[in-house]
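Exercise 7. Given the encoded structure of a 771-residue chain, write a plausible sequence.
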């Protein structure tokens, strides 16, 4: 927003530059300074079109002059031609000849021509304007009275030549003192039978109206020429006069009779003429006639409107220069130039002429001019920054300057900038290395909460590459996963410096979040540094400590308290137990206490096992050790222990005693929860690269909701319908720890209503499996 304030130097420079370019564009448009380019564009953009079928030119051409004699001809020949055209059904006729003097050959020729004009078809004649003497006074030369009275209309046939000498426009109304004479082609249209009112369109020029002895013109239009000379249908005068043309070529058509032979009539260069070619005046009038019939005349825009349109693309380009980067602003300027030229060409086809050169020239000048101004400003800025940079101290030494300095001024500045940027890269690399070397996950977020830097520890914490983290927001990585309002970025940034503890979405993952703000060179808050200290192990140790305390305070305290109670009870002779009963109770309590201590010690030993000290052995040996250990228990319960082992050796790396103890725990539980006399199955096999051990009991099954916590420390999952069998809940926890140490896993499935299957799996040593 500061960039758009007037006091900003960039905005001031831009405003003055835009003002200068806009003034030049408007002046060039109003005063037509680039008229040559505009006229060339007009000629190139003229569309042309097919010649109409109902307009025909009867041409006084070279063959006609050869057949009928030297020009001018007798007027009775024109009378005969009109009679022929009337017989052939011409709609209206324009005789593009000056009859300002009586016929020198015979007075009867004027009478015959007037009579023919009265008989029809409707015939119009042109008038002539001359400036005799040195007084430059104008005079209208009308046809002789007998012909003027017989004519259906009289119109002027003047053309407007542009500054390059090419005829492109006409005034539809002209006259001395007032524009009261219609153009020759407009007069022909009005003279035709059934003609409606003619709406005149064009540029108005009323300034000289009413001034005496001044030729006044109004309603200027540009002629939309349909094609080059000879584009309209032409018939030879002599052929029509002698009946060599069919009536279909004339019937119902506008007929313009005029000279096309060289040196006989007037001719003009037009946009379609080409080099060395001119168009006969009669064909120019045919183009004007067609434009008026189709209301296709091209009207020049008023100068004020053209000036505004010229300023519009320049203003848009200027806004792009201020708001867009250089490449896009340059592309916008090019598109606006193309659009301006296209808009002018489209407007020309729509009947309006907008000269585009002023706007195109301003667009061409604007980008280089603004670039020059910005280069000047950049040079001053670099000079100032280089001076400040040379006075600042950095934690790393500056790069040594080159021995040979460039001679060119721009190259010198580029060399200084190269050294400065290299130094800044070294500082940024040092900062990045410091952040990446931090042991804790650390991210840097800007004021909006977007991550701008993340070290590898942060990438590992969030499970995403560092580049992906740097394109995301803090809330997307933290709040959206945890859904804790205290972890919203705006909350952390507002409270910083602060420390927050959070449990991440990963099960059991705890972090300590430390948020510290950092500022820019102006001491304004630029963002926040957020560090994540992983305290998962600390929280796990705390939970284990709490579990041990509960174990010591409850499970181990209970049998000790019972023993103490028995001792106190025996001191009272009245309440003392018989020796046999006392011995039995002491034996039960001591056995329970010994079992708890033994389970706790075994679990501690399993957790402290070092996989680096594991040795290779046959897993079937550990299975056999376990079977031997529980055989006596099975016999005492009258249960059957069915062991099925693979025939081939199953070689694994591990601790044979720990694995045997884990299998013993599973077999003991299976015997405990199976009915007396029931069988327990043990299966040891290999599936691919995995060694599998399955223990199946005949108990009542395990509820689904109890399975998730079955292998946790101090958790005692009950079989369905069973009372609490006792124990501290360390047996299956021991099994889980042993399997984790051996890169395996333990799980239970089946047995929802009847029986349960406990499974163990661990990788085999495939290198020695076949030995």
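Solution.
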């Amino acid at each position: 927003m500061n960039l758009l304030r007037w006091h900003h130097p960039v905005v001031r420079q831009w405003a003055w530059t835009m003002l200068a370019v806009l003034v030049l564009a408007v002046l060039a448009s109003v005063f037509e300074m680039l008229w040559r380019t505009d006229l060339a564009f007009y000629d190139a953009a003229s569309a042309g079109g097919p010649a109409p079928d109902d307009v025909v030119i009867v041409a006084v051409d070279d063959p006609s002059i050869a057949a009928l004699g030297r020009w001018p001809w007798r007027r009775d020949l024109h009378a005969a031609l009109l009679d022929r055209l009337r017989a052939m059904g011409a709609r209206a006729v324009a005789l593009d000849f000056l009859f300002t003097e009586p016929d020198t050959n015979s007075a009867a020729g004027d009478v015959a021509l007037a009579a023919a004009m009265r008989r029809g078809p409707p015939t119009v004649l042109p008038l002539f304007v001359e400036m005799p003497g040195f007084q430059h006074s104008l005079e209208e030369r009308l046809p002789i009275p007998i012909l003027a009275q017989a004519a259906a209309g009289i119109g002027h046939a003047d053309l407007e030549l542009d500054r390059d000498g090419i005829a492109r426009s006409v005034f539809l109304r002209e006259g001395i003192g007032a524009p009261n004479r219609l153009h020759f082609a407009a007069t022909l249209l009005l003279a035709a039978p059934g003609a409606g009112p003619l709406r005149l369109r064009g540029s108005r020029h009323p300034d000289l109206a009413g001034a005496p002895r001044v030729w006044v013109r109004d309603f200027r239009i540009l002629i939309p020429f349909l094609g080059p000379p000879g584009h309209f249908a032409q018939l030879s005068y002599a052929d029509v006069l002698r009946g060599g043309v069919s009536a279909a070529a004339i019937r119902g058509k506008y007929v313009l009779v005029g000279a096309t032979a060289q040196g006989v009539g007037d001719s003009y260069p037009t946009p379609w003429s080409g080099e060395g070619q001119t168009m006969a005046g009669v064909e120019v009038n045919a183009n004007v006639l067609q434009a008026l019939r189709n209301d296709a005349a091209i009207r020049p825009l008023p100068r004020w409107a053209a000036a505004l349109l010229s300023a519009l693309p320049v203003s848009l380009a200027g806004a792009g220069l201020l708001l867009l980067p250089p490449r896009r602003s340059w592309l916008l300027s090019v598109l606006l130039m193309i659009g301006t030229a296209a808009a002018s060409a489209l407007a020309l086809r729509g009947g309006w002429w907008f000269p585009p050169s002023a706007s195109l020239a301003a667009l061409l000048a604007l980008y280089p001019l603004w670039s020059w101004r910005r280069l000047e400003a950049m040079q001053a800025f670099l000079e100032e920054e280089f001076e400040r940079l040379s006075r600042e101290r950095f934690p790393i030494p500056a790069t040594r300057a080159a021995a040979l300095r460039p001679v060119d001024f721009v190259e010198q500045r580029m060399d200084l900038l190269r050294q400065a940027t290299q130094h800044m890269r070294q500082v940024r690399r040092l900062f990045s290395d410091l952040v990446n070397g931090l042991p804790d996950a650390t991210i840097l977020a800007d004021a909006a909460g977007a991550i701008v830097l993340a070290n590898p520890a942060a990438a590992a914490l969030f499970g995403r590459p560092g580049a992906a983290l740097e394109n995301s927001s803090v809330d997307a990585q933290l709040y959206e996963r945890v859904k804790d309002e205290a972890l919203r970025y705006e909350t952390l940034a507002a409270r910083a410096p602060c420390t927050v503890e959070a449990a991440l979405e990963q099960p059991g993952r705890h972090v300590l979040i430390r948020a510290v703000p950092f500022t820019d060179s102006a001491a304004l808050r630029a963002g926040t540094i957020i560090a994540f200290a992983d305290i998962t192990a600390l929280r796990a140790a705390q939970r284990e400590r709490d579990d041990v305390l509960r174990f010591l305070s409850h499970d181990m305290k209970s049998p000790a308290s019972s023993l103490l109670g028995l001792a106190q009870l025996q001191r009272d002779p009245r309440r003392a137990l018989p020796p046999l009963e006392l011995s039995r109770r002491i034996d039960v309590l001591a056995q329970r206490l010994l079992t708890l201590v033994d389970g706790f010690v075994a679990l501690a030993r399993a957790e402290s096992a070092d996989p680096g000290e594991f040795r290779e052995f046959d897993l079937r040996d550990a299975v056999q050790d376990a079977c031997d250990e529980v055989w006596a228990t099975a016999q005492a319960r009258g249960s059957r222990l069915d062991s099925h082992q693979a025939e081939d050796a199953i070689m694994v790396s591990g601790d044979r005693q720990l694995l045997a103890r884990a299998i013993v725990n599973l077999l003991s539980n299976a015997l405990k929860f199976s009915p007396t006399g029931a069988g327990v199955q043990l299966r040891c096999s290999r599936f691919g690269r995995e060694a599998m051990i399955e223990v199946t009991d005949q108990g009542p099954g395990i509820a689904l909701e109890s399975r998730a916590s079955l292998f946790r420390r101090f958790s005692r999952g009950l079989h369905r319908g069973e009372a609490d069998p006792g124990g501290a809940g360390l047996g299956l926890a021991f099994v889980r720890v042993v399997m984790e140490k051996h890169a395996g896993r333990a799980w239970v499935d089946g047995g929802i209503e009847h029986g349960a299957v406990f499974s163990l799996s661990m990788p085999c040593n495939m290198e020695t499996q076949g030995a």
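Remark. Confidence is low (pLDDT under 50) at residues 718-725. Students should compare their own answers with the one above.
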